Structure formats: structure tokens, C-alpha cells
UniProtKB/TrEMBL annotation, chain A:
This is Alpha-glucoside transport system substrate-binding protein. The keyword Signal applies. Keywords: Signal, Transport. Coiled coil: none annotated. It comes from Murinocardiopsis flavida.
Automatic annotation (TrEMBL), chain B:
It is a multi-pass membrane protein. Gene3D superfamilies: MetI-like. The chain crosses the membrane at residues 34-56, 68-88, 94-114, 126-147, 325-345, 375-398, 425-444. Residues 171-193 are annotated as: Disordered. It comes from Murinocardiopsis flavida. This is Alpha-glucoside transport system permease protein. Keywords: Cell membrane, Membrane, Transmembrane, Transmembrane helix, Transport. Pfam families: BPD_transp_1.
Length: 437, 454
């Protein structure tokens, strides 16, 4: 009893000493910042994004550089998974953060419509002009006015595979869709290895399949028209893309668990099927699969490799998702911070920390820490103006981002029974039209 | 009934001032009414802020559009009843309402009656009641795993498939298949047959692919060339795939493995003339064939698909599956309430029935259940109210792809309001609709309380 008390007391003493030391340090640290001669001394800014854990730490390190240069104090707040649900009430209460990092362009348009955003000005607007291609500029604009900067990209045109499975079957990473669905998948299944694990229960993974096939097959112009709903979903190009998907989706032997199993497997489970249970050889999803690969006990770059989504049409597709930074207050420093986030310096710092991919054309491939990311960044830079943002994140979320509805549900039904591409296209058109109204 | 002037009633009156104010018109023995109001104020404020205001606001909000800017009147209600998903949700709610409370009450009754007679009844009751201590969310996560299709992950299918496999063991080569250009093709009676007939003295090659290396039986050897033998058909069944690629299709390339324990038959006119199984190197000898040509067949038994278990989380079974999880959570609750009721039943009634020569079933049917009926009714109606607002179990157990098949009103309300479309106007309309559905059960419950207290 006594001993216990003593040890508790010891802890308290140590904690108190720590607190003293910390408070003692604070003024010194502050004056150190002043030494930098920043233009924004005493300015306090708030940034909100959905990142937590390592992603948050890395972002804060990027912010540190800004603090050092300008003397401003930037505090970070995590919005949790649902950024829209976090920001909505904050905006209504007039307590929005100075800079918000939005996971979808849809939110950008919504907030701009509510006058909750401040357009990019001065250095920030210039940084966007200098460092980003036209497509990204347009993506961050609402009615011609630039609001947002895509500061962190997610590469969605990747196929992850298990090299030991490929070695056993004696196949190489394919360059075309025909090779992928023909020789590579055929040989794998001859060898008794199921080619694909599907994540059908997570509808968004199916939209990524469709987007890649469509972008490569129909081309970027049609892709943009489909995003804007200028062409209907019943367009022959959509039907053709769906029929192409049936090369994989229609073959029971292609997918772990057959069509039934494919529709029931949700997102991280399908990664486990490949890297943990070794039930399949490939899984098609974005770069962020890396986290689930590590959880399943494999190492990216060693027993978990990637190849770019193969070309269905003339060019291989590069579909990118990502987070868009936008200013939400007129406060001094907001525009400076946005300008910094759009700069190649911020991107290069971030790239060196890992777990990051930039859409900034001035961030060189050499800046990335590991080879896998370097290769991915290179594909984005190579694709140049043909890179496209995730379609399902650009259409109204009632159509492109709702569990059990719209695009998710239509594609899940198609995966269950890929007999009727036309019927699926009609179902897509019906819910797209409903979401527009 | 409270009679004025009974001193024992006085303290109760002080506490329940509302009752006193309402019924005490005849004599003014209680405190002044303004004091009653003061005492009631905290409760009223609390009720107002947390009950009445949200309800009123929901009704108000349901008359406005998604952004809350345009007044749409009853438009949201029209949209609600025009939408197909509302009807699926409503249908599932009806299924829930009919099945779940009945099932839980019956199981609770069984448990309560049976535990009365066992020695470790308290321990048993604690175990059955334990799921109530787990949050619905955690129960949902547990059952999501239990119902997983893959028998390696889902417990329900693990049990079913292991029972089934002991009864009817799966074949060794369910995935084996011929290449499209191979001489083997689907046979009429199932299995695979060689296109060319063979007769005694011939050797045949039967190449197959699609067998995972790690599923080959122990002791499998490299495939060997068949040796011709007089009076018999000989051949080799082997895995025509060279590890790491290479090799010629349809040829024995040296590095390829045989497929042992494969059943081979010689068939003529639909009659099986000879049967044998392959050796460790994949070779076989069909002795005892006479003259003439035979069809060489790999029997269907070799390729029986393993039983994959039940698709619990598929569109057809999802609602029953979730009701199963619900039963697991609530059976303990029903059991405890019914057991309490059971303890209050006069023993004499039961004993009298037994003395009169009633069987145990008759005693249960004619005496126990009628005496318990008030308790059963309370349990049943309480469960009905809970079932109507069921949300968490459905939300967690149903995978995204079948969520619209498992949909219930409370989930639909959430999905419409926050699940992407963010139409809180329509969501409020659904909330109001749900409230209207719960009200009859509530009125019933309140009436019963009143009757009991009087």
C-alpha cells in the first residue's frame, strides 16, 4: 500500500517537473521563432483536414516549415472521416477553420455556393497558376473563380499483385487490358491461382474499376462530358466500358469466391485475401492499399508490388483522387498559407516524409522517399493533361458516393450478374438524372 | 384510488404533485398549485428541450427542402412514399415486427421455464443475459464476423461446412479443369471424358490444369509416361502446368506432377466396364477391358465442389441473419423479465393442476402461460418498440452491397440524412413517419401502466 503511494507520488513529481520544464521552454521557443523575422508574427491560423496518426504528423511537419518562415502559428484539427459533417455545423456557427482541406470537389462547389469560401488571391493564385496544370486549376474552380488547390493526391490506377504468385505461374506484369484478362489471368488460373480479389461490398472500389476502363477506352474528353452529365450514361461508350469490365467481372474463375464472394467482400478484406490469406494474386485499388498490405503482414516493394492499370484503349489511364485545400476566412495569413501549400517546397518536404503523392507539376519524382511512390508520381507527371480526377467524387454524392444507391448499387448489381450492360447503363442514367434534379 | 384524508397517501402526493393537482379538485389539502409548477419546472424544461423541441423541429424541418431554404410543404412526404427504398425498408420493418418480438419472447419464455428446473440456473441466466451488457455496435461487429462467407473466417459457415464435410467429404480436385484445346471435354453424366475412344493396349494422356500446388496430396510424384500393356488401357492424369511457366501444353514435360487418387473409368454404352484410381505419379492401368473401344472418363466424383456454406450476408438471408443476432442480444432480457414473472406465479395453482393429473405440457399451456400473459405482453410490446427503431445491427452487419436489401426505416432515415445525399428534409419526414408508427405501441404501453397502477 505504502510503496504504491510512494510510486504514485513519484509519478506526480516527475509529471510536475515535466510541466515546469515545458512551460519554461515555451517563451524561449517563441523568441526563437521571432528570430526568423516572420511577416506574420502573432498570427494564429487553424487548418482542418481528415488526417490522423502518421498522416497528421507528416502534415504538421510540413506546416512547421511555414511557421518557421513566417512566424505564424498554425494549429491543426482533425475532422474525422466525414469532413462534410464536421464543417457543416462549424460554418453555420461562424467558426469555420481558416483553411479547410476537403476530400471532394463536390464540397468545394457546395461551400462556394454558400459563400463559405474565400477565392484564391495574390501569391496563392499565382502559385496555383505556376505549379498546376489547367485541369487541376479548373477542378479547384467554381464558376471560373479559383478556390481550391489539390495538395495531396491518391493514385487510383494501380493494380497490386503478389510477385510469388506471378513467379509461380511464370507471368509478368501486363501492359494492356488484353494481356491482363487474357494471358496473365488465364495462366494464373491454369496454375490454380485465382487472379483477382474484388472488394465489391465497398461500392467505391467498383467505381474505380469503371473509371479506369472508361478513361482509357473512351478518352479524357468523353470522361469530362460524363462527369458533367453532358452525355448520358446510356451512351454507347458507357455500355462498351461495362462490357469490357465483364472480361473480369463475368468470369467466375477470375475472382476469389466467385461473383457471390466478390460482392460480399469489403475493402480491406480483399487486400487480406491477396496478401494475408493468399487466395488471389491481384487486387485493383489505390496507393493507400499500402497500409492494409502492412496489416496483412506483407512489405510494400518486396512481397507486394504494383503495376499501372493497363491500357484498355490507346493510353493507360491515370485516375487520381485527393484532398483540396481552400481558404475559409479573410484572416491575414490565410492566403499566404495556401500559397505555401501550393508551392513545390511544401510538396517536396511532404514527399520526403512518405505516404504522400503530389499533383504539383513542379514536385519532381526524385523527391519521393521510396521507389514505388516515385514510379507512381512519374506516371502522374507523364500523363500530364490526361490525368483525371475520380469521377464518382465529382458527380453529386447522392449518385456517386452513397452506400447502396446510385453508381455503387448499379455496379454492385452488375458485378453480381454482368449479363446486361445496357440495363446497367440505364440504371446508372436513371439515378444520375435523379441526383441532378 | 387515493382517498383524501388517508395520512399514508400524503408523502406520495407531495412527490406526484401533478396527480394531486389534477385529481385534487375536491379538497385543497395539498400545497398551492404555483409551488407544484415550481417543482415541475426542471422536469418540464428537460422534457421540452430534449423531447418536445426536437420532435416539433423535425416536423417543421420535414416541410423544407434539402438545404432548408425552400418550403416544400408535403413534398418530402410525397417523395418518401414515391421512393422504392422506403417500401423495401417498410417491408423489412414489418418482417422484423412480426418475427423478432415473437421469436425473442418465445425463446425467453423457454429459457425462463427451463432454467427454473436446473441446478445452476443463476449461472445459466448470467450467460444468457451477458450479451445485453455488450453494446449493439460490438454485437454487430461480432456477428458480421460470425456470418462471414469464408469458412476460415466465419464461424457459422465453419460449423456448417465441417459437419457437412464429415458427412460427405469434398473431392480432392474441385478446381481442376481441362484447357479449352485439350482432348478432354465435359462428359454426359458429369466428369470429363476423352474425345477419342481407346481400346486395350492403348495409352492415353489426360492433362488437367487449375489445381493449386498446395492442395496436392502428400507423396505426389512427378508425372510418368504411361507404359502400354496388353489387355489393358493405360494412361497418365497429370497437372499440365510447369511451375514458373514454360513447357508444352498437352505434353509430359518432365517437371510436371501427377494427380494421384483420381478415379478413372472405362465406359461403353453408358456401362462402366472398369474402374481404377491413379498412382502417386498419375499413371493408371484399366485392367479387364475386353476388345473394342471404350470411352475413358474421369468420374464426376473427382470434381465435386466443396460445400461453401450458407450465404448469410447475401440479399436473400440478410434480414433473418440479423434477426438471429438480435435474438442473441435480447433473449436474456426477455428471459430475466419472464423469470421474474414466473417467480410471482402462485405455486398452489401449478400444484393443483398437477394433482388433478395434468401433464407438464398441459400445466405449461393452460396454467403457466395464462398466468404469465401480462408479463409476456409487456416484454412483447417493449420489444416491438425497440424493433421498430432497429438501426445499429443492420447498419453494421449488412455489407454495403446488401444494405439496400436489409434496409429498415431508421437506417433509411440515416442514409438519406447523412449517408451522402444529405437531404435532412426528407430524413426528417422519415423520422416523423417512424414516430407515427411507434405511437400506437407507446399508447398501449402507457394504458397498461395506468391500469396496473389503478
Amino acid at each position: 500500500m505504502r510503496r504504491q503511494w510512494r510510486s504514485v507520488r513519484g509519478v506526480i513529481a516527475v509529471a510536475a517537473a515535466g510541466a515546469l520544464a515545458a512551460s519554461g521552454c515555451a517563451p524561449g521557443g517563441g523568441s526563437g521563432g521571432n528570430g526568423g523575422g516572420g511577416a506574420l508574427d502573432g498570427v494564429e491560423l487553424q487548418v482542418a483536414a481528415k488526417w490522423t496518426g502518421v498522416e497528421q504528423e507528416n502534415f504538421e511537419k510540413v506546416l512547421d516549415a511555414f511557421e518557421k518562415d513566417t512566424g505564424a502559428k498554425v494549429s491543426y484539427e482533425s475532422t474525422g472521416e466525414d469532413t462534410g459533417a464536421y464543417l457543416g455545423p462549424k460554418i453555420e456557427a461562424g467558426e469555420a477553420p481558416d483553411v479547410a482541406i476537403l476530400p471532394q470537389p463536390g464540397l468545394l462547389a457546395e461551400y462556394a455556393g454558400k459563400d463559405a469560401l474565400v477565392p484564391l488571391e495574390g501569391d496563392a493564385a499565382k502559385a496555383l497558376d505556376d505549379n498546376y496544370s489547367d485541369y487541376w486549376k479548373e477542378l479547384g474552380s467554381v464558376e471560373g473563380e479559383p478556390y481550391g488547390i489539390l495538395i495531396k493526391a491518391a493514385h487510383k490506377s494501380i493494380v497490386w499483385y503478389r510477385p510469388d504468385a506471378f513467379d509461380e505461374a511464370g507471368v509478368e506484369a501486363p501492359a494492356t487490358w488484353k494481356d491482363l484478362t487474357g494471358e496473365v489471368s488465364g495462366t494464373l488460373s491454369d496454375a490454380g491461382i485465382t487472379p483477382f480479389a474484388m472488394c465489391g461490398a465497398s461500392g467505391w472500389t467498383l467505381t474505380d474499376w469503371f473509371e479506369n476502363v472508361y478513361l482509357s477506352q473512351a478518352g479524357p474528353e468523353k470522361y469530362d462530358q460524363l462527369v458533367a452529365h453532358e452525355i448520358k450514361w446510356t451512351d454507347p461508350s458507357v455500355v462498351k466500358a461495362l462490357e469490357t469490365l465483364a472480361d473480369v467481372w463475368g468470369e467466375k474463375t477470375m475472382m476469389a469466391g466467385g461473383a457471390k464472394g466478390a460482392v460480399q467482400t469489403d475493402f480491406p478484406t480483399c487486400v487480406t485475401q491477396v496478401y494475408g490469406q493468399q487466395k488471389a494474386a491481384m487486387v485493383m485499388e489505390a496507393d493507400f492499399v499500402a497500409a492494409s498490405v502492412a496489416e496483412a503482414g506483407s512489405t510494400v516493394g518486396e512481397d507486394a508490388l504494383t503495376f499501372p492499370f493497363p491500357a484498355v484503349g490507346d493510353d493507360a489511364p491515370v485516375v487520381v483522387g485527393g484532398d483540396i485545400a481552400a481558404g475559409m476566412s479573410e484572416k491575414k495569413g490565410t492566403q499566404e498559407l495556401l500559397a505555401y501549400l501550393a508551392s513545390p517546397e511544401a510538396g517536396t518536404t511532404w514527399a520526403g516524409l512518405g505516404g504522400y503523392l503530389s499533383a504539383n507539376s513542379e514536385v519532381e519524382a526524385g523527391a519521393y522517399a521510396d521507389k514505388t511512390t516515385k514510379d507512381l508520381a512519374q506516371t502522374i507527371l507523364d500523363a500530364g493533361d490526361n490525368v483525371r480526377y475520380d469521377l464518382s467524387d465529382q458527380v453529386p454524392s447522392a449518385f456517386g458516393g452513397t452506400e447502396g444507391k446510385g453508381m455503387w448499387a448499379a455496379l454492385q448489381d452488375y458485378l453480381r450478374d454482368p449479363g446486361d450492360a445496357k440495363g446497367t447503363a440505364e440504371a446508372l442514367e436513371k439515378s444520375a438524372a435523379a441526383a441532378d434534379s | 384510488m387515493a382517498t383524501t384524508g388517508d395520512p399514508a397517501d400524503a408523502p406520495e402526493r407531495g412527490a406526484g404533485a401533478a396527480g394531486a393537482a389534477a385529481t385534487g379538485g375536491s379538497g385543497r389539502l395539498g400545497p398551492p398549485s404555483w409551488l407544484a409548477a415550481v417543482f415541475l419546472l426542471p422536469a418540464l424544461v428537460f422534457l421540452g428541450a430534449y423531447m418536445v423541441y426536437p420532435i416539433v423541429f423535425s416536423v417543421y424541418r420535414s416541410l423544407w427542402d434539402a438545404d432548408g431554404l425552400v418550403f416544400v410543404g408535403l413534398g418530402n412526404y410525397a417523395a418518401m412514399f414515391a421512393s422504392e427504398s422506403t417500401f423495401i425498408a417498410l417491408r423489412n420493418n414489418v418482417v422484423w415486427l412480426v418475427v423478432a418480438p415473437t421469436l425473442v419472447t418465445v425463446v425467453g419464455l423457454l429459457f425462463a421455464v427451463l432454467t427454473e428446473r436446473i441446478r445452476w440456473s443463476t449461472a445459466f441466466k448470467i450467460v444468457v443475459f451477458m450479451p445485453m451488457a455488450i453494446s449493439f455496435l460490438a454485437s454487430g461487429v461480432i456477428f458480421r464476423l460470425v456470418y462471414e462467407q469464408d469458412p476460415d473466417r466465419g464461424m457459422a459457415n465453419a460449423v456448417i461446412t465441417s459437419v457437412r464435410d464429415t458427412v460427405a467429404p469434398a473431392a480432392s480436385y474441385p478446381d481442376a479443369r481441362p484447357r479449352p484445346e485439350s482432348p478432354l471435354a465435359e462428359a454426359d453424366g458429369g466428369g470429363l471424358a476423352l474425345g477419342e475412344p481407346a481400346s486395350a493396349g492403348d495409352t492415353v494422356l489426360l492433362p488437367l490444369v487449375g489445381v493449386p500446388n498446395d492442395t496436392l496430396p502428400d507423396g505426389t510424384e512427378k508425372a510418368a509416361e504411361p507404359e502400354a500393356k496388353d489387355g489393358a488401357v493405360t494412361g497418365t492424369v497429370w497437372l499440365d502446368f510447369t511451375r514458373g511457366g514454360g513447357g508444352t501444353e498437352g505434353d509430359l514435360d518432365g517437371a510436371e506432377t501427377g494427380l494421384p487418387a483420381m478415379e478413372v473409368q472405362a465406359v461403353r454404352d453408358g456401362e462402366v466396364a472398369a474402374t481404377t484410381t491413379t498412382r502417386a505419379d498419375g499413371t493408371f492401368t484399366l485392367d479387364g477391358v475386353g476388345g473394342g473401344a471404350y470411352e475413358i472418363r474421369l468420374s464426376a466424383r473427382n470434381f465435386t465442389e466443396p460445400y461453401n456454406g450458407v450465404t448469410w450476408l447475401g440479399p436473400a438471408l440478410i434480414t433473418p441473419s440479423i434477426i438471429g443476432a438480435y435474438l442473441w442480444v435480447w433473449a436474456g432480457f426477455a428471459m430475466v423479465l419472464i423469470a421474474a414473472g414466473l417467480a410471482a406465479i402462485p405455486r398452489e395453482a401449478l400444484e393443483a393442476a398437477r394433482v388433478d393429473g395434468g401433464t407438464e405440457w398441459q400445466v405449461f399451456r393452460r396454467v403457466t402461460v395464462p398466468l404469465l400473459s401480462p408479463v409476456l405482453l409487456v416484454v412483447f410490446v417493449t420489444l416491438m418498440i425497440y424493433v421498430l427503431k432497429i438501426f445499429d445491427l443492420v447498419f453494421i452487419i449488412a455489407p454495403g452491397s446488401v444494405q439496400s436489401d436489409a434496409n429498415v426505416l431508421a437506417l433509411e432515415m440515416w442514409r438519406v440524412s447523412f449517408g451522402g445525399a444529405n437531404d435532412q428534409g426528407l430524413g426528417s419526414a422519415l423520422a416523423v413517419f417512424l414516430l407515427l408508427l411507434v405511437i400506437p405501441a407507446m399508447i398501449f404501453q402507457i394504458r397498461r401502466f395506468r391500469q396496473e397502477n389503478s
